[in-house]
Amino acid sequence: GAAPAVHAQAALRWRLASSFPRSLDTIYGAAEVFSRKVRALSGGRFEVSVHAAGELMPAFDVVDGVQNGAVEAAHTAPYYFFGKDETFAIGGAIPFGLNSRQMSAWTYEGNGLRLMREFYARYQMVSFPCGNTGAQMGGWMRREIRSARDLQGLKFRIGGFAGKVLERMGGVPQNIPGGEIYQALEKGTIDAAEWIGPYDDQKLGFNKVAPFYYYPGWWEGGLQLDLYVNQKAYDALGAEQKAIVEAASAYAHVETQAKYDVKNPQALKQLVGAGARLRPFPADLMTEAFKQSMALYDELSRKNPNWRKVYADYARFRSDQNLWFRFTEATFDRFMQSQRL
Amino acid sequence: GAAPAVHAQAALRWRLASSFPRSLDTIYGAAEVFSRKVRALSGGRFEVSVHAAGELMPAFDVVDGVQNGAVEAAHTAPYYFFGKDETFAIGGAIPFGLNSRQMSAWTYEGNGLRLMREFYARYQMVSFPCGNTGAQMGGWMRREIRSARDLQGLKFRIGGFAGKVLERMGGVPQNIPGGEIYQALEKGTIDAAEWIGPYDDQKLGFNKVAPFYYYPGWWEGGLQLDLYVNQKAYDALGAEQKAIVEAASAYAHVETQAKYDVKNPQALKQLVGAGARLRPFPADLMTEAFKQSMALYDELSRKNPNWRKVYADYARFRSDQNLWFRFTEATFDRFMQSQRL
After folding, report:
1. Candidate from A137, A238, A327 with C-beta closest to B278
2. For substrate, which residues are the binding ones (chains A, B) (predicted)?
3. What is the CATH number of the domain that holds B41?
4. CB neighbours (10 Å) of residue A272?
5. Does the beta carbon of A164 lie under 8 angstroms from any beta carbon of chain B?
6. How far apart are CA A74 and CA A64, in angstroms?
7. Residue A216: cis peptide before it, omega within 30 degrees of 0
8. pLDDT in tens, A206-255
9. How many domains does chain B have?
């Protein structure tokens, strides 16, 4: 945990269960940044100890842990919990969804935080945005993917909810926590695996067992991470402590995206230098995946009223964002990316 | 100012001078968000009153105000002060520089904050990132710009440092605070004006006097705003108060970009509906502006050791960022922007 010297004097102590392994300073580190900021902002009177996946509970049990009060807080990727309700996925990332900046905009200044909190109240949780990975890579494949057909029968470790789209395309999604993927890929239990992007993927060593590195991770154009807080623990806080939780989480939110952006370019260079073969997904696969995703969202809107309410707002927002970003943002970025810098 | 009911009880009171007019809830609003968070995080024991441009001092005098201690803090666009030293501009935006996310990355997790603070120490100031506008639009023109030649003699209100590039291309840059641009454009004192983007520009009414709306704002791919704090005022804070200033500024940083992203799409639709004519800058103008910008940066690196030190790091960072963003981020965004959503 992040227990410091002043721990003994803290008036308030929380435990936070992360869904991530301690080895990933980026995604696991977000919770540590949160904890450090809470300590600093409270003058050491409010302490949050951070526990890696498996330390207090398995990676995918942290929502249960917060809901039943076993821990006061969790740091996780919301889409892991789509089995409880598909609406969880919208709080993290859905295929062909918002990018990192758009997701922050929906959360902080659109209706995102309000709608997701209304949903999370069913689980006795309050949510705070706490990091984003940016657009992820599409993962490591043992063999090349030349068309959508090559997904047939592919045993692919893929993050949570995206498996539902992969399934519709004939793939066989595998939901495996970060810390256990390498072994499965090495053993051949799975054919392919995506995790996050160059920096984390390099740490987990996937390039050693699967040479082809695909992009873009169309199912995670910007995975937002959440801090979940048990409702009773939150209600017990004073106004100042509530403000501390919110601000510490916002700090970790911006700092985590920054960390990914700083670390990914170097890692990508090293991976390519070590033989990783970068490949864009074929156009027919992208088109089919988009079509299947939209069909899935239509189905869910008919079947799940929670999904329908949140997705309707999210989809409108996504449409407006892409309209706006295509002008000055995209034109600027495209020009810069085509220069010799 | 933002003085609340509890003002009388605050143990610590700061005054903050903004360079922006109160009418702009986005860019002026960032300082108000900062102030609200400081109050909440301190339980009302630390108050920051926010003063619009002209209230305590003119828009472009706020660095002097912080340096000489007339106010404890300012919220401004760093490039306004390039006349003191061109290095200021790097802290805000330079032509063909970093985009919003890349600028946050350089600041929070690259060498940006450390290098800029080292530079700002000459002005007895400590800096905190406090908002970003995103990639700005290229501004409002009374007549169409068909090639780089059309910049010859153009009296163009353009943000701070970018005027140095415009000058090299034959234009006549005008540095005018936000609150005074409309009158100059209406009177015909200037031929063209850029301010920020659809939402702010619509508020200031530029579309009423100049029909052509250009993109991208290649001189502001992501203008980062700064909170400047007087060094002595900062040193007098306790550790908890220092953490509060940092976290409140980080909160305003992420919230301000979110506000722009939420508000710009609607404003763009309204402007186009009211007759604004969207135009991309011609390719020869972009190429020439890029060339002139790089030549300017080379000159400055020879003449100004402060610039040389900071720019060397910034340029390396920009190169790596554009390498990385061109893969998964750009491919994802381009696909999304080309869909019917």
Report:
1. A327
2. 136, 157, 194, 220
3. 3.40.190.170
4. 14
5. no
6. 10
7. yes
8. 999 999 999 999 999 999 999 999 999 999 999 999 999 999 999 999 99
9. 1
